[in-house]
Amino acid sequence: MEDRQKYWDSIANHVAKYDARWFSSGFIGNETWFNEYNRRRITKAIFSAIPDKKYDLILDVGCGVGQWTTLLATKLGADVTGVDLSPKMIELARKRSAMLKVRNAKFQVMNAANMNFENDLFDLVNCVTVLQHIPDEKLWKKAIKEIARVTKPGGLILLLEAAPKKFRGHRKRGDLYTHLEGEYVEEFEKAGAFFIEERKVSNVLSLLILRFGEGLLYLHAKTIGKKKLNFYSAEASGYKPKSMYPSYMFTIILAQLVEKFPLFKKLDGEKILLFQKSKRH
Predict the structure, then answer these.
(1) What's the pLDDT score for residue 55?
(2) Most confident of 55-64, 164-173, 217-226
(3) For residue 232, pLDDT beyond 60
(4) 48 or 261, greater pLDDT
(5) Buried residues in 169-188 as b, exposed as e (16+ CB within 10 A)
(6) Beta 176-177 vs 172-173: how paired, if at all?
(7) Spatial CB neighbours of 63, under 8 Å, sequence gap ≥ 6
(8) In angstroms, what CA-CA distances link 219 with 30, 119, 196, 214?
(9) Mean pLDDT across 104-120
(10) How many angstroms separate the CA atoms of 50 and 71, rounded?
């Protein structure tokens, strides 16, 4: 666990070097055209999936630098707590929240598999691309139990994960540890939360198209712009040459068409899984 904390602290140290424009967005990775598009798409998907009702207390598990914590606080008006394993991430999240003047968000260093909250506390638990980064199977299951434990009976749990229905390929890819959608459903049901719905955010082909477009941008920067850019370059946030705009638009339109075309609709990618804790649990 200490190794995982150090890993996410190192990511946070990269984040700390970014410019104020990127820092205000809170999206991991530089603000290229493609990340801006992806951030808008994910934000729209998350808030369209959250039922329109009053929420008093919300928990954001694996909050990172607080992107979703502050958005939940401002858009839903609830008191939102963000927790993360990395002390450095929490430090940056507090700075972001203060910079954005979000007063109904607070942050704590906490392990998702061992949270210091009482039972049945939160109306909504948000968990975006967090469980897929837990390498230990026992800790993954324990984190699911903890998320269900701290959710109020009748409360909602929103996940955004790479959770394919059937074929997952290699379980471990980089820092991604994939589980099938059915495995998530099974574990949450064991913990007392039943599955409500799935909403696809993207498919694997559209994500590859977007990454290809971003690769072209980096290639342009290296060959024509004479700049060395990468995923963690603050400088890349401001690199938007007019000559690349047509290829950017073509890539975005192609990715959108692939997501809507019936032939590719069954392809898995990022998806939202919505659960509700049983009122009898």
Answers:
(1) 96
(2) 55-64
(3) no
(4) 48
(5) eeeeeeeebbbbbebbbebb
(6) antiparallel
(7) 69, 82, 83, 84, 89, 90, 93, 107
(8) 16, 51, 43, 9
(9) 96
(10) 13
